[in-house]
Structure prediction request, 195 residues.
Amino acid sequence: MTATHASAESLFTAGRSHSSWLPKPVSEAQLRALYELAQWAPTSMNCQPMRLRWVVTAPSKQRLIDCLYEGNKAKSEHAPVVVIVGQDLDFPATLPRLFPHKTDAQAYYSGKPDLVASTALRNSSLQGAYLIMAARALGLDCGPMSGFDMQAVDAAFWSGTTVRTNFLCNIGYADHAQVKPRGPRLPFDEACTIV
Ligand SMILES: Cc1cc2nc3c(=O)[nH]c(=O)nc-3n(C[C@H](O)[C@H](O)[C@H](O)COP(=O)(O)O)c2cc1C
Prediction:
């Protein structure tokens, strides 16, 4: 399926968080197509702190599964791809290239680790949400997860870098028959106010 077939139904109302996967592979070309869409997420000062590790090989998969909480291990074991959504705390270094018209953009973050951390988390989370929607737009299913030992994943996959893990996402073709009933959503009048 191409992105042009995506609808509000496939992106939102029928879009679920999946845990059971069909034994159907996902190609590198699909992962590249996925990033091609997800890259258009808006980020503050176009900073794009998200970094991705696509975990597909058996040894990498095992290293990751060793870091997961028990209840999540089988979910990733059977997913053809698990993507580690990371956040690069050195994102200010890319600002001269990504936001060239603001010449003091990099300096703005200098000596402000809390601002760097909150900016990296906020924007990589937004990019990660776009990644999920991009996968759905391409006919893939997702299962985001935060139930894992974050320091262990950092050590196993981002050692020697300035990247830290944000969340994981299983990607593939889900067994839709296995998905649990949909949880309720907060209604407009509880979640929102118009001021
Ligand atoms: C950041 C994040 C972390 C999550 N962590 C887990 C997890 O560790 N294990 C799990 O089974 N589901 C996890 N979920 C799935 C949520 O429980 C699911 O998105 C939520 O219940 C809504 O389900 P629905 O999208 O099918 O409506 C996570 C979802 C998000 C967005």
